Amino acid sequence: MILYFVTCSLIWGLTWIAIKFQLHALDSNVAVFYRFLLASFLLFAWAVFKRVPLRFERSAHLRFLSQGFFMFCLNFLLTYWASHMAPSALVALAFTSLIYFNMFFGRLFLNIPFERKVIFGALISFLGMGIFSYNELQQIQIHPGYLVGFFISLVATVSASFGNIISARSRQQKVPILANNAWSMLYGCGLTLIYCLSMQKSFHVNLDLDFVLSFSYLVIFGTIISFGAYLKLIDLVGPAKAAFTSVVSPVIAILMSVLFEKMVFDRLLFIGVLCCLVGNMIALVPKSWILGKFRNAY
Prior knowledge:
Layout (H helix, E strand, L loop, with lengths): L1 H19 L7 H22 L8 H28 L2 H8 L2 H13 L5 H17 L1 H5 L5 H29 L4 H22 L10 H29 L1 H4 L2 H16 L6 H18 L2 H11 L1
């Protein structure tokens, strides 16, 4: 479980840097299409090589289509739109609500009970994200567009949550993760293509070295490996706990900004990061393990 959690959090924490190297080369929505087109092709090729079954009934394909729409199309299109209207800190703050949406929809559709420690941990993590987004939150009165971007991010988060719940349902039906992701990403990129064509987006790409390297990272690590690990994590611990990656990955992104972009690591940032880490520990570390360590210490 720890390996999958760390893999998702670390990879997605670094995707923000990779995405920046893409923005000069092509339209962001077209980038989503190319990203999932190549990722789905590679997943299908790997599934054939591993002899993973790829033929499913119509009901399964409806789930793949739904997951592709919510997780690999609408979620990304709205997130990129929000990123053009609001600072990344506000977008990241909105995405921490994925924990609550996954808890709510998990209870509603999958009958997964609420856990008190997960709710408490999520509240502390959300507080942490709010603390290191404090400066951006203050700017909402000056820049009303920030608030619009924040709400678009919330809609994107709801979309991602629906995708999480649908993937959990597919796992209940014993659909292999590899096949599930391959079909869902294919449907997702197809729907994104329809959107791009309807909006008359340009599909031209400036193939410089920065784009090739960042695109390769986003496809292989940011899509194939990370989403495979994330859906396995949902399978192991449930949608609510898996969603704590949405708290850790922005923290990693901020630490990368401190290291490489000369971002100032001030007191608010330190307190915010600390709250996020404490919230994750409360939610994810088993109570029996904590009590055992406490007894051994005393």
